[in-house]
Amino acid sequence: MKALIIGGTSGLGRALAAEFIAAGWETSVTGLREEALKEFSSAFPSARASRLDVSAPEARDAVEALLAGTGGADAVAVCAGLYQDDPGADWAAEEKVIAVNAAGCAAALNAAYSYFRKKGSGRLACVSSIGGVRGNARCPAYNASKAFLFNYLEGLRQNAAQAGAEISVTNIIPAYVGDGRGCGKAMLAAIMKGRRSVYLPGYWRLLAAVYRNLPDLVHEKMASWHYVLLKPFMRRAPRWKQ
User: Fold this and answer.
1) For the whole model, what pTM was predicted?
2) Strands of 121-127's sheet, edge to edge?
3) CB neighbours (10 Å) of residue 159?
4) Alpha-carbon distances of 99 from 15, 29, 119, 237, rounded to whole Å
5) Which portions of the chain are predicted below pLDDT 50?
6) pLDDT at position 242, please?
7) Measuring CA to CA, how many Å separate 199 from each of 98, 155, 241?
8) What pLDDT shows up at residue 239?
9) DSSP secondary structure letters along 144-200
10) Which of 60, 81, 63, 85 is CA-nearest to residue 72?
11) CA geometry: angle at 237 spanning 235 and 240, to 5°?
12) What domains sit in the chain, N to C, each tagged with a CATH number?
């Protein structure tokens, strides 16, 4: 079995890649930073690691080439992402976040989904964020770009259902999990079970439902105490266990 992890050299992507490797999958990963690629290759010599900038215009073609060059894949997970605090809604920062989290991730997802459509089956997953549930004054573009992924993944899932293709599409929704270590097993389990979504930690599914249905007036007024309210739940996020 073969897996391709886009953005697999750090964070949640690395945690997931480590689990695929431990499970005996032939695993390929991509990353952006050269030092992260070298460190990953040193830690996991059996895996293939290559550089990919998902925000580049040729990103979709690059993912197609990776799939062809590795002999295809049975599972593809897109874990690339960029977070920037931007309370001033500065366009230079906003544009970069959108280029990575929305356009870049969509390009990679589209290439993988198209491959699975031709193949007739596959497991597709993407790391979004709890930020996709609603907008946030602190990082408008980040939350909006993650909301885009919620809807794009849902659209691909419905497309697969209409086509009768055996393609599972899993939305991985982390909430304040730090570097993501300790989350790999839950992500792999969700992908293998073909779950539509998985919240990390799981109790955030309930919190997200409450947050999503807050009246707009309450949501607009809570910007100043948003993180104070969430702090107890942020502390309970899973971490790496040595």
Assistant:
1) 0.92
2) 48-51, 26-31, 2-6, 75-78, 121-127, 166-174, 197-200
3) 14
4) 24, 20, 28, 28
5) 237-242
6) 24
7) 22, 19, 19
8) 42
9) HHHHHHHHHHHHHHHHHHHHT-EEEEEEEEE-S-TT-TT-HHHHHHHHHHT-SEEEE
10) 63
11) 110
12) 2-235 (3.40.50.720)
Helices (H), the chain: 11-22, 34-43, 59-69, 91-98, 105-119, 140-163, 184-193, 204-212, 216-221, 226-235
pLDDT of residue 16: 98
Q: Which of 233, 227, 170 is CA-nearest to residue 196?
A: 170
* CA pair distance 121, 225, nearest whole angstrom: 45
- Residue 74: Cβ-neighbour burial (10 angstroms; 0-12, 13-18, 19+): middle
Instruction: Say how many C-beta atoms besides its own lie within 10 A of residue 56's C-beta.
Output: 14
Kindly report the backbone phi and psi dihedral angles of residue 48, in degrees, each rounded to the nearest multiple of 5, phi listed first.
-95, 135
Question: Which 3 state secondary structure label does DSSP give 6?
Answer: strand
Tokens of 229: 């309210």
DSSP symbol at 81: -
